Amino acid sequence: MGPAPAEVVGHKPLDGGWGWMVVLGAHISIGFAYSTPKALSIFFKAIQEDLDASYSEIAWISSIMLAVMYAGGPVSSVLVSHFGSRPIVMVGGLMCAVSMVTASFGSSIVYLYLSIGIIGGCGLCFNLNASLTIISKYFLTKRPLANGLAMAGSPVFLCVLAPVNQFLLGQFGWRGSLLILGGVMLNSCVAGALMRPITPPPVPSSGAPTKNGDQPDKRNTKMKQRCMKKATKFVDLTFFNDRGFVIYLIGNVMYIFGAYAPIVFLSAYAISQGVEEYSAAYLLSIMGFVDMFVRPGTGLLANSKWIRARVQYLFSFAMIFNGTCHLLCPLMKSYPLLVAYAVFFGMGFGMVFALIFECLMDLMGNQRFPSAVGLVTIIECFPMLLGPPAAGFLVDIFGDYKYLFFMCGGVIVTGGLFLFIMNMYNYHMLEKENLGKTRKPNPTSLENPDGANNSEEQMELNETKGTETNTAREDPGLERDKETI
Amino acid sequence: MTSSWKQQLVQVLLVLVSCGHGDTKTAAPTPTPLPPVTPLKQDAKSAVLTGKNFTERVELSSPVNMTLSCTWKGDQDKPPNITGHWRKDGQEIQDSRVTVMLEDENYKLIQVFSVVSEKDLGNYSCVFGNEARIDFILEVLQMGEKRDKPVVSYIRDFVVMTCKVEENKPIPTTWNWYTSNGTDKEQINTTASKRFKIVSEERETKLKVKDLTLDDAGQYYCGAVYPIGTSVGQVELKVITFMEPLKPFITILIEVVVLVAAILLYERSRAKKDSAEGTQTNAEQNTEPQGDDKGAEGNDSVRQRK
């Protein structure tokens, strides 16, 4: 699994320069990925009337889009490691545009499921995965900041797309709006163009040269063993041997389960407390607005000397903060208190999402991150789809929103505490392991040990310094090769 | 018929006066200890005037005997009696002038109106003396959802317009749709024009128009027919050609192509500059667009790499 020195040579992260343009590209790309499913809900009422569908049938469009976006993670990872980020983001942008344009001609709800849900979801999936990967390639020391800035794309685009969609709907109806939105999503291609590739074509370490359309969900039409073998090339199950990865995964699954339901039900809860409809909608805008600034801020904070080595602790703190907000929400009965809740919710949500992929990069390192993120997103698909309906079910049974907030807050706080405690344990174990290991220039399973001494980034930083001497040694070789040409 | 009517009127008046409900703003349906001869329901509204003017809106859905009672606290000088009368839509109702006595520092005017059809709706006012006036606006139940945004659709496409009545309001007897013809409203006949289809349920009605043309644009009205009258809601339809959203789409398309080309050309020119300098000072800045299907500029850097 470890990278050969030659690969690390071409891989010294830029940490600046063109990297900031890449962050801009990732910002746009991630912005589209996360905000489109939510922003589309503005058209739902109009589509519902025209196509004579029920509200839940229409809401499936967003759910399918989100599900495909997350479930396509492993496929996207493999494609990115083969072809690099740039072509994948451009293809993703094209797919999104095609999906919206074809949807504008739709005359049945199933047609919309296919075009927006599946094709659009695939396009967004390519966008998301490739953007995260290229950030990990361009940044090391400033990576938390880059991640925070890139993830800030989601609230920014949501705040922009929501009023734009309203305007388009009034001017052109939902069909024309989808057409124009398709054009807007072509800007992902511009974002892709910014993502200048950086490494020579890497030998795919997971070795997945074939993509015969075997889905990671293992539809066993061929012999089981062959299927299993090919499937493991998509979804590298050896990740589950990794302690840090499993801890991260469990904590994340718990978080995602409780994260989206409060957003979905916040307006309804506010209206039930006597707030009028317009002001209730404002709460979500406030949350988005706060989110916009908190994400880069958290990135900056995570970049600082004291936090960088212990960023997993900051992540667990952010989760606990978010969960506590939800637990306190049922106490907020008046509008000013609800506004305060929205502000703190935005803060907590932004902090978690700014760090969510940074922590994975921190644990996995640049080489393993692409496949790891694919695996994480496909597993996160399930809590994401199950969370809001489960919460809605609670509301239906008890007739009271407070149980929803208790459940979500409780699950998130438990996840945060779990991460906190298990990370302490993990750091401790790693420190013990590292004491027994000799320092190699290319560590294979280097995780996040405790303290400022042996953090992975510092290891990689030392590595790059070490490899600078390596490159010095290798350069004569390269120059010799040049002369032979 | 009329004698029993008057009998009933007097009895109702007596009941109301003896109840002495004076100052309440909310109405309570008058209890009828009368023999249930009349098929009409009874209802009552009352108001207290402290200034010079007061207006109350009353929504009705079926015929009713409406008792309206007005209480006025009087002016600076309170004469022992003043004349009061009733008006409908600004016109004084005949034989409605009465002399009002001052009781408990208040003047009271009470009158029962039978509201049976749409012409009986309107603005009923009780007037004390010459100026002090309370208006009761009797009107048909208004539809809840006010739609201020137009429904947009395309030529040769279809559109569905809906009108709804809220859950807690009574169900209309039937639904009608009208299109505006100049200043008039003309009812839509679904048998005459095949393009129009009306589907009505209890609380909701849908008008589906197929094969739209530009002429179909304009105001459409849905009418909820109640026993007392028709409540009208309004929907605006806008019909546009497909070219209209296509123009912004093509603009954005051009912008994207220009930006992508600019970025890639910039990159190519930088790569050429770097190769022209013939140095490989910064390994990171040497771009290797290996998956780049846009150009063959990879050749330059590839040559150096080997």
CATH superfamily of chain A: MFS general substrate transporter like domains
CA radius of gyration of chain B: 36 Å
Describe the global form of chain A.
globular
Q: How much is the radius of gyration of chain A in Å? A: 23 Å
Output the helix-strand order of chain B.
HEEEEEEEEEEEEEEEEEHH
- Going by CATH, the architecture of chain A would be Up-down Bundle
Number of strands of chain A: 0
Q: Detail the poorly predicted runs of chain B.
A: 17-38, 288-306
The fraction of residues in strands of chain B falls at: 35-45%
Going by helix content, strand content and strand pairing, the class of chain B is: alpha+beta
Structural class of chain A: mainly alpha
**Coarse morphology of chain B:** elongated
Biggest β-sheet strands, sense, barrel of chain A: none
Largest interface: A-B, 46 and 44 residues
Spatial separation of the terminal alpha carbons of chain A? 32 Å
And the CATH topology of chain A? Growth Hormone, Chain: A
**Are there runs of chain A of 5+ residues with pLDDT below 50, and where?**
1-10, 207-218, 442-458, 461-485
Main location (chain A): membrane
Catalytic activity (chain A): 4-methyl-2-oxopentanoate(out) + H(+)(out) = 4-methyl-2-oxopentanoate(in) + H(+)(in); 3-methyl-2-oxobutanoate(out) + H(+)(out) = 3-methyl-2-oxobutanoate(in) + H(+)(in)
Family (chain A): Belongs to the major facilitator superfamily. Monocarboxylate porter (TC 2.A.1.13) family.
Organism (chain A): Kryptolebias marmoratus
What's the topology here?
The complex is a heterodimer of chains A (485) and B (306).
Chain A: H1 5-9, H2 18-39, H3 44-51, H4 55-71, H5 73-83, H6 85-103, H7 109-138, H8 143-151, H9 153-185, H10 187-194, H11 224-234, H12 243-272, H13 277-303, H14 305-308, H15 311-328, H16 335-398, H17 402-436, H18 456-484
Chain B: H1 2-19, E1 41-49, E2 53-60, E3 64-72, E4 81-88, E5 91-92, E6 98-101, E7 107-115, E8 122-128, E9 132-140, E10 151-154, E11 159-164, E12 174-181, E13 184-187, E14 196-200, E15 204-209, E16 218-225, E17 230-240, H2 243-277, H3 298-305
